[in-house]
Amino acid sequence: MSSDxxxxxxxxxxxxxxxxxxxxAQTDATAVQAAADAAGESLNAYIVGAVAxxxxxxxxxxxxxxxxxxxxxx
Length: 74
Known about the structure:
By secondary structure, the chain is mainly α. 65% of the residues lie in helices and 0% in strands. α2 crosses α3.
């Protein structure tokens, strides 16, 4: 069981993010996970990176992603 301080810390951390649910066909999910593994990235980092790359291609602006997201992708 976690302490009140730990729960509060987790809540502060999670308040900085938005959870987005993505659904893949089972075979696609397996392929994406394998690609993330091959790249040495977590599934989340792989998907966020792919989205960032597409956003850069389609709408090249310096402010397309918040700096903390850009930093995470380095």
